[in-house]
Amino acid sequence: MDLARTRSVAPRLSVLPECGSTNAELRRHAPDAAEWPHLSVLLTDTQTAGRGRLDRTWSTPPGTALAVSVLLRDLPDDVAAWGWIPLAAGVAMTDAVAAQLPGHDVGLKWPNDVLVDGRKICGILAEVAGSAVIVGTGINTTMTAAQLPVPTATSFAALGVAVDADRLISDYLMQLAAVVAALTRTGDAVASGLHAAATARCLTLGQEVNISLPDGSTLRGRASVLVSDGRLAVHGGEREHVVSSGDVVHVRPV
């Protein structure tokens, strides 16, 4: 891959021919702040043991998806604000994907998926690593329609688009850096504009949804707003429920 633009944005870029989990690999380097500064990137197009929410594992055919992990060190002093990092990454990746898919409906499914025309093209997983946060994304790039793991997935290739990977990653990094910097400067998602940006891109809002909860129960209702800490308010039955990202397995229209 020619990643000249990405190298101009990331202070350190490590490209691996194959990797089990880019998040796990970057975590090994996280203690070394001198060698792996803020916005360092580790990526591969062949991830063999990717991890999603709740430690689910998955893999993709070699060369068909990008696994990109970013190390964030310059973060808000208030750790509670770190809960907005997955949505910050979602905003940044939504815009990066949309830039190469004009005419398509691209948006964010709360809390951590990017959808194109209602189908998932990218998933996001943020993990705390000491005083840093690692944000991992998996983007379906050259995966054919036959290779897609589920009918609700899509890829650039399945949409008939030859993705410019360098532009995609560099656009994502620049936007992520800007959004996180504003959050760090203000310490508040509303004041920084992140709350408004996530709300504007969130396809979940206004939808009737099913939310699978850790206790095995299912919450059904209409997603209404993102509250100030990034949780999702859902009106179900006669009351409003507020769901945290840590409790949600998936959110789907019904």
Summarize, please.
By secondary structure, this protein is of the alpha+beta class. It is 24% helix and 30% strand.
Main sheet: strands, sense, barrel: 7 strands, mixed
Radius of gyration: 17 Å
Model regions low in confidence, pLDDT < 50 over at least 5 residues: 246-251
The CATH class assignment of the largest domain is: Alpha Beta
Distance between the termini: 40 Å
Anisotropy-based shape: globular
Number of domains: 2
Spatial order of the strands forming the largest sheet: 1-2-5-9-8-7-6
- Looking at CATH, the homologous superfamily of the largest domain is Bira Bifunctional Protein, Domain 2
Number of strands: 14
State the helical fraction: 10-25%
CATH A-level architecture of the largest domain: 2-Layer Sandwich
Estimate the strand proportion.
25-35%
Structural class: alpha+beta
Along the chain, the helix and strand elements come as HEHEEEEHEEEEHHHEEEEE
Question: What's the total helix number?
Answer: 6
Rounded mean pLDDT is: 90
Q: What is the CATH topology assignment of the largest domain?
A: BirA Bifunctional Protein, domain 2
Structural topology:
Layout: H1 4-9, E1 13-16, H2 22-29, E2 40-44, E3 50-51, E4 57-58, E5 65-72, H3 85-98, E6 106-109, E7 113-116, E8 119-129, E9 132-140, H4 165-186, H5 189-192, H6 194-201, E10 208-212, E11 218-226, E12 232-236, E13 239-243, E14 251-253
Parallel strand pairs: 1-2
Antiparallel strand pairs: 2-5, 3-4, 5-9, 6-7, 7-8, 8-9, 10-11, 10-14, 11-12, 12-13
